Please model this.
Amino acid sequence: MRDKGYGVVANWNYVTISLIVVVVLTILVLYMPGIREFDRGMLNGIRHFLAPYPSYIPAFVAEFGRANYMLWPQIAACSVLVSHGKYLKAFLLVFFTHAAFFLTALLKDFVCRERPGICSYPGWSFPSNHACTTMCFYGICIYLIMHYTRSEFWRYFLVIVFGIFIFLVALSRLWIGVHFPIDVIGGLFMGFLLVNLYIILVKAFN
Model:
């Protein structure tokens, strides 16, 4: 019980830290216009560094962060969970993944930050929906894999693969030029917040 209690406290701390980061970034975007130039400088530096590499790499990776492409990973993950009788975990996985879509959409409409303008892309910029949703879904998958995968090889292999994928999707938004770095960081922390809320609920129901 001590370990479980400590784990819940740690998860609440992560939720608090993530929420503070998202709020601070939102305030910076809303009330500090000068942050845009700093953000643009960071974006240009990142894109300049990545310029020698093929542009189809970020385009390919980014596609898997879209709403329609997130459907099949959700079906696959839920099928595995349901087959092992973990119905609540499957339901919460879908719930939080969709919550990531809606929460980022709400915050986008509240902040109304324009995109960098490097290439045409619909919608507002802050926070990154791709970064948030990918972090939320695959972050939860990493938690489930760490707790329920018996094979040590597959446990660490899948965790590394999913971790790299989260990073690549976030990086692809900068590489393509449809988000500023602050947008991506905000999206990642929003997703991390939701991952920890998922873990807290799972532990509470257990």
